[in-house]
């Protein structure tokens, strides 16, 4: 017997629940090929397929299918489904950096949830709102500023994020949902951190840690310890930071996660550098180096060599410092790390003078180093190390933070539905009214992107001669008429125009740029964090290289 649309969709749902999203997509696509007249099943397929594509980082496809879900749920008057589709759209738009459109979707989600008296829906919408403003703030951070010292546009976005997270917490406490509280505390702590409210950040992360322990969530516990360590660094509490990083290291080893184990070693090495305990710093940087080599992480290996060269220089071990500086230079060239290459060249030159070797650093490079602001990924960074001529050209901390904190913000992402329901139209909160508008504004051009039987909703069967109810035929007729319409609601169209401007004709969005951070390097490039937040303290620790006699 030929499998039905529902059978194929249920198998797709099962595969997604176990993390096999590619296989899940295949079954959902097959379900649409078979087609169905059951609008609830079709809505669920769209929602699940959009979520699966989201997890596969195919955000254009995720938008397409969440948009289909939105169109269908609006037409059939399924307000709960519309709210959830709005949530999903908002999450996807957030990842793509289209924050104004994401806000429209979040507002629609929140409005419907309030109208329905749905407390859980309200909390999810508020959480999504916080995530959008948090991501917006990070996306426009500049790397030359410290937490709490960003442009007003950034601070405004981060304050809004904090307000929405606080509102979410109020509802989650009322509902006694401790797991949800934990996720929000983690994101709230990260937001306070960027606002420069380090004590508040620590209070939030301590709550996150407490709840993670309640649930035995060692991954969340490890992240909380890392976040606590980062806040302690900015507060100048280096011993306490080392304690937190040590606990993070222990948990990483329990989890048998080599990449995060290396990250903890890297953070510990730099913390002990701040404490002027260079022997221990070298020990942890060597541990980081070994894991980076095992994981073939050349970027992480370069960071480790750079850190080891600096620590050996501080101890006067110039031969060993030269070995690591030359290795850092080699890796920087190989990986195209321009600022790292310039830094390594200066370090090698200084060490050559100390060791009485020939002066081989290219003078034009030295001149370039003295005159330029290092530019990496569009961010200007200018810092000094080891005396007046030694430039530290690492990526800025906040440039890295804005791009690479995704693994700490996993809680923002839409998830496949839990096991309590099968193929409900529910998916993670956050996206809808906008794509309704988008579909109408773009009209039939979207049809070129869609697979299906010739109508604008793939998988929707037109009624056969044997179809039974007239009411069902009326609903299907409304769906078809709605999706073929060329004029949207005036209210939604106005919002869309304000958000999209001249981009109405764009049907596809490029995904975010791939991460250039090595897997063994923490989200925050720790050395840049140290140099920016502890410049005076580092001046006292630096070793001035003796001149050649």
From TrEMBL:
Residues 448-472, 504-523 are annotated as: Disordered. Its main location: membrane. It is found in: Cell membrane; Cytoplasm. TPR repeats lie at residues 43-76, 222-255. Keywords: Cell membrane, Cytoplasm, Membrane, Phosphoprotein, Repeat, TPR repeat. PROSITE patterns: GOLOCO, TPR. One of its GO terms (cellular component) is cell cortex. InterPro entries: GoLoco_motif (IPR003109), GPSM (IPR052386), TPR-like_helical_dom_sf (IPR011990), TPR_rpt (IPR019734). The keyword Cell membrane applies. One of its GO terms (biological process) is establishment of mitotic spindle orientation. GO terms for molecular function: G-protein alpha-subunit binding; GDP-dissociation inhibitor activity. Belongs to the GPSM family. This is G-protein-signaling modulator 2-like. It comes from Sinocyclocheilus anshuiensis.
């Amino acid at each position: 017997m030929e499998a039905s649309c529902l059978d194929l969709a249920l198998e797709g749902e099962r595969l997604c629940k176990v993390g096999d999203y590619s296989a899940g997509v295949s079954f959902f696509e097959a379900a649409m090929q078979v087609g169905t007249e059951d609008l609830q099943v079709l809505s669920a397929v769209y929602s699940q397929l959009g979520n699966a594509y989201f997890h596969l980082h195919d955000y254009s496809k995720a938008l397409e299918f969440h948009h289909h879900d939105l169109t269908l749920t609006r037409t059939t008057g399924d307000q709960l489904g519309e709210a959830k589709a709005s949530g999903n759209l908002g999450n996807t738009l957030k990842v793509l950096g289209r924050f104004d459109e994401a806000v429209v979707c979040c507002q629609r989600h929140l409005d419907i949830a309030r109208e329905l008296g749905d407390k859980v829906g309200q909390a999810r919408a508020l959480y999504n709102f916080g995530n959008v403003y948090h991501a917006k703030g990070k996306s426009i951070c500049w790397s030359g500023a410290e937490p709490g010292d960003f442009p007003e546009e950034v601070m405004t976005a981060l304050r809004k994020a904090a307000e929405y997270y606080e509102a979410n917490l109020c509802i989650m406490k009322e509902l006694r949902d401790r797991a949800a509280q934990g996720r929000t505390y983690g994101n709230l702590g990260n937001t306070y951190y960027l606002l420069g409210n380090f004590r508040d950040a620590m209070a939030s992360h301590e709550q996150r840690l407490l709840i993670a322990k309640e649930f035995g969530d060692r991954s969340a516990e490890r992240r909380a310890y890392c976040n606590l360590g980062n806040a302690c660094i900015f507060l100048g509490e280096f011993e306490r930071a080392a304690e937190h990083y040590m606990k993070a290291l222990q948990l990483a080893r329990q989890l048998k996660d080599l990449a995060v184990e290396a990250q903890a070693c890297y953070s510990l090495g730099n913390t002990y550098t701040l404490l002027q305990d260079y022997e221990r710093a070298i020990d942890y940087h060597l541990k980081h180096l070994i894991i980076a080599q095992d994981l073939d992480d050349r970027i992480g290996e370069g960071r480790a060599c750079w850190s080891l060269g600096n620590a050996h220089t501080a101890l006067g071990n110039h031969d060993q410092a030269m070995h690591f500086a030359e290795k850092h230079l080699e890796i920087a060239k190989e990986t195209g790390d321009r600022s790292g290459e310039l830094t390594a060249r200066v370090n090698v030159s200084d060490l050559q003078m100390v060791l009485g070797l020939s002066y081989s650093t290219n003078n034009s490079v030295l001149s370039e180093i003295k005159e330029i602001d290092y530019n990496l990924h569009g961010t200007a960074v200018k810092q000094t190390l080891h005396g007046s001529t030694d430039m530290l050209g690492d990526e800025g901390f906040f440039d890295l933070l804005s791009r690479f904190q995704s693994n700490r913000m996993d809680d923002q992402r839409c998830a496949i539905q839990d096991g309590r329901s099968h193929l409900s139209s529910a998916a993670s909160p956050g996206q809808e009214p906008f794509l309704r508008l988008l579909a109408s504004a773009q009209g039939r051009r979207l049809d070129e992107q869609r697979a299906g039987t010739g109508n604008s909703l793939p998988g929707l069967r037109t009624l056969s001669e044997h179809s039974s109810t007239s009411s069902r035929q009326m609903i299907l007729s409304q769906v078809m008429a709605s999706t073929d319409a060329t004029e949207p609601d005036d209210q939604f169209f106005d919002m869309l125009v304000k958000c999209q401007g001249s981009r109405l004709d764009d049907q596809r969005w490029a995904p975010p740029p791939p991460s250039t951070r090595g897997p063994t390097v923490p989200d925050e490039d720790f050395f840049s964090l140290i140099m920016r937040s502890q410049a005076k303290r580092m001046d006292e620790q630096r070793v001035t290289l003796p001149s050649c006699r």
